[in-house]
């Protein structure tokens, strides 16, 4: 696997991932961050098309993740889209594509549909190169990179390797639960999902939990879990229509006061729609700020302050605050050390 190439590093953020999905022409889905894999949490987001698991790992080879490497058998089939990761910074987008391109229920749009057809006969490694060489996918991916106006010519490779993160996708394919990890030789089959559209969620929960427990036992607790789900506004609006029809029919049969529970559900959905709209506005704003270069603005502000002879005083004020903050930290550490020492003396006296 090569280094970053001409792919930028992007944040593990649901707003970023949703923006990438929409940017490549996919409609009807979004990404939600989840903080628990219990049944109730997952039920609130159904239908879920796949899960993306982010974790820290050491090294670069296929088995370099060390602890937590899946033991499920590799099961590569032609009808499964699986691409090996050939470049570092593309892993987040590749995990997203692993879910999108293996779903029969997602509207991929023209660009991604053509891409899927084009690479259908490629082996996994060539599929990986096809992703990294796709100008459309790369441009959309890079459009969500943080603005970095400064170029650091002196880089410490060892420091970069300290915080390598990787993304793995979990998704149901043909009735089986698959783990799609671009650092592996092929997709890993965790076996039948069971009956029902969402039965795979019952199976994937313990698998991810066991993996997190393995990493936690080695001292690593930085994880991130996201779900590719149906567009929440579409889901809520469909429910509003469904409940409205039910309420009208119920009141026609039982009178104008019937269906109080449906009224309550409609009120809740109205609140959910408002929250989702507010969340999207916030994500859009964050995506704009994330990509914006603030250096010219900061430069002009500093230049204006200097012209007004206010910059030196503000710099000195900032230094004083920094010294005061450092002193507070020092005193707290000293107090904590004395308290710890006192506890030792208390222990020794007993």
TrEMBL record:
The active site is at 91 (nucleophile), 166 (proton donor). PROSITE patterns: UCH_DOMAIN, ULD. It holds the Pfam family Peptidase_C12. It is an enzyme of class 3 (hydrolase). Its EC number is 3.4.19.12. Residues 233-286 form a coiled coil. Transmembrane segments: none annotated. The record marks 85 as: Transition state stabilizer. Belongs to the peptidase C12 family. This is Ubiquitin carboxyl-terminal hydrolase. It comes from Lunasporangiospora selenospora.
